[in-house]
Fold these 3 entries.
Entry 1:
Amino acid sequence: MSLNLVSKYFQPSSVLDIGCNTGQFYHSCKSVFPSARYYLVEGNYRCEPFIRTLGSDYSIALLSDDIKTVDFYVRKNELLCTGNSIYRENTTFFTDDQIIVEKLSTTTLDLLLPDSQFDLIKIDVQGSEVDIIRGGMNLVSKAKGLLLEVSLVEYNFNAPRKDDVMKFMKTIGYEPKELIGNIGHPIDGSLIQEDILFINKSILDNN
């Protein structure tokens, strides 16, 4: 993941990490932007003991576009799996006999952080990226850049794919600028997802 490319557009003084799991992105980003302020959000409550040790502010909250009750799919034998999500993973790891389906309540990003502002918002939530943005437009509109994981294939059932995300981001004034990373399929290694940096058009217009 080439996070140093963010510096071509701005130097983030604050980073919101949505879908932080146990801190993988946090550690990578902090190594590049050590002086930034970090806030972490994770929907899987089982990750909290690990997040707590990181020393950053955080919330355990399952985010979406509205307040509602959803099915949350969890691997029985890997409760901290990064694939646990609202949009069920389309792999042999998430067959009926290998998952727990939990009924959980969601909230929105703007309700969770109503008076906040972050330069960089990273969202990696296995298909819920657009939903979370829809529920966080107040916060998103004030950001300088969004780093999103987008899928090239239907890796999560009924989740938006890259083209859908690109079109949506254009409607809210964000332009894709950098490919930050690639993700291969856990079984065959084929390219399935990309991490793309989108820049707020208002930032580009002022430069």
Entry 2:
Amino acid sequence: MVPINRAVWQDTFGVPGVVRESSLPTNDELGDHKVLVKVYAWAINPCDHILQDRNMFKYPIILGCDIAGVVENVVPGSTAASNFRIGDRILGCTANNGFQDYVALEDKLLTKVLDDMAYRDAVVLGLCSATSAMFLFGKDYLRLDYPRIGAPKKGQSVLIWGGSSAVGSNAIQLATAAGYDVITTCSKKNFDYVKRLGAVDVFDYTHAEVTAKLAEELDRGECAGIFVAAGLEDGNVMACEIASACKQTLNLSSSSFIGNVDNIPKGVNVKQPTAGNFKAPPPLSYKVAPPPLVVSRNGLEGIQEAIDLMKKDRISVTKLVVERP
């Protein structure tokens, strides 16, 4: 029997999503490079509530990025079928469209997960690891050397602003695996957490002199760059101040859009994200971080509850997850 697909529809901006039926992608729609995924877990990102509240799209639209589940269908003989088969357990990230029971996903934006990894653990990795990889290693961003097993120490530091965030947690591990000494920021209560992920030094981002202290620390040696993983506009401003105060010339990349270009000091060049230029990274052996917090096991009916919680509370050291019943 052909399954019935449902989705959380955003009918306009600034209102809660509504669960109702959605079309199930056909083989023609899957084409050569897509697979159909039955979703068992959805992760909530800060961008989900931001996109829900802003008038940015032609409505109605389906939001949602991070999913984990099972390959339900793939077109026989397609390029996607050469890498994935029905029954494969996967994680992936979408350009929206994730808040559905069944999602058509580009084969380059998903990867297989181990049989012993729970979907709630797998789903936290997709967008966070892809975002971190793009800003750390992308040719248009910091252009760091790629991670590899047994990578020697480079004698260079990398500053990751917002290390206890979802993106920051993955960035710390990726940069460490590439041989860089990671210096990061977070609140004092999360110092031990980021050190377990590989950070060699941590600074309290609320300290009155944090920018001066970080500039001094980075200038003790060679710094390969600064990545703003969290903090929105405040994080961008403080990272720019650090780069401006350093004696060495530093590249700075940010996962947050800069709303006011007047906040960028003279002489500081900043790279920001653009849509459509990231790919899921290859599987790596690193910790599932941040750990999932399952806030609902009601499937799509629990998505809005999780989005509201993300919007209400400042989430760190965890990622909100909704599971299929």
Entry 3:
Amino acid sequence: MKKKFVPGIASVVGVSILLTGCGSYKNEASGANAKDEASSKQVLNLSSPSEIRTMDTARATDTDSGQVMRNVFEGLYNLGEGNKPVPGAAKSHEVSGDKTKYTFHLRDSKWSNGTPVTAKNFVFAWQRAVDPATASEYAFLFFDIKNAKQINNKELPANQLGVKAVDDHTFEVELERPVPYFISLTAFPTFLPINEEFFKAQGDKYALEDNTILYNGAFTLSDWKHEQSFKFKKNPTYWDKDTVKIEEINFNIVKEKSTEVNLFESKQLDRIKLTSDFVDKYKKDANFKERPNVGVQFLRMNQQNKVLQNVSARQAIDQTIDRKSFVNTLLNDGSTPTFGLVPKNFAKGPDGKDFRATNGDLTKVDTKSAQELWKKAKKELGSEKITLELLTSDGDLEKKTGEFLKGQLEKNLEGLTVNIKPQPRKQQVSLLLKGDYEIGIDGWSPDFADPITFLELFTTNNPYNLDHYSNKEFDEAIEKVKTTLAGDEKARFDALLASEKILFKDSVIAPLYQKGESYLEKSYVKGIVQVDFAGQLNFKWAKIEK
């Protein structure tokens, strides 16, 4: 998901005993008392990098909102350890012989107001997501369902979507073609159910506050103080509440990494991510942990900009960035330089070989070549002096990333001036989505386990084609992957490999790095599941254990 996006930050929550930040860190269990409470009660104290951007499942596009939704709502399936789908609102399902019809059998479960979760809740939510009036940026994920694309194109009404509530506990889905990752997709936030009666009763207030939402997940959202803090509380109506051990999770929005580290040290936070500034300091700490990630960060280049319409200019920008230096000096967290879009150790072909290993490096760092390309671009553009604006978020890492890129580009590309535009995370995302930027730091974590979750972003009409790239050959290749090649595993995989090569022949983006993650976690915290798709945490199985 858009996240999908670089780890973003929204507001500063300081702490009175620290020199950084301002205001007041609100936590009933502070200082040494926090450790006592955490050890004796099932309470987690965590930070959030930003305000919850939205709680409307049809409109969420960012990682931070998605993480909240993953814990307070539940789809047909959930994602557990190793990203494996586990039954959620559905206790089982059947698939037709041609793999185009899924029948889900719902368990007896309830919304947080005590009303039953029914098949109609899924019908309503999915129809709403594809309805063009909703303007869901993730509507395209439904396009493999019968009539979804025509509905989104205003050719059919939403009630013609290929979904049906046979009865309260039976939900049928008819696909246009086989989709090998469909079960995994049902755990994605846009596929979560909505109680239609409650939704309509709330009107324009729906999902704006914690009390204008119904929950069917392991937790409920409460005490939502915008731009400051929020809480998860164990949902007493959840069907699997006996599995859920955590009673409460306190989230405070913390902007400065040094503030976050000090809060961990003073026993006010139980888990935090680390940036490069702190990795060496804590590598030998008993609380230090690290893990690989399948999210990628890259530099977007908006082709609505005259300079960036020039392929030589884009190639020059791409080839001048020293990814290795960037990763080693700014990150130091297990992240690795990347020279493609689809990450390593994410998807394998029919031969069992990794996608990234098969396609290899599709770009390079070559300062001399970059300078020649830049000279060519300037000549074609008729200008020796060029200025570009670099959009970033205002978090610590993003600011440093912006400075690094500015230094690299201005040093190696003569006549180029880069002006950095740091914005609060929410505003940065908004500007990216509106295409109101020139070059911008962005990223993507997969929504499901297939390379198309990365590649499809750059088709002409995809809502996440924020660079306004258009290539008929690429569009046709992706369309074949989704249609005529859907049942041929080898041909489909080969087409995906070829599609990625087209993107890099055109230098659509400049890939930066594949994420790694270093973090500190108190020894008494157990069972938090990291979901690679969108890089989110699932707290259903978490617990405090002495």
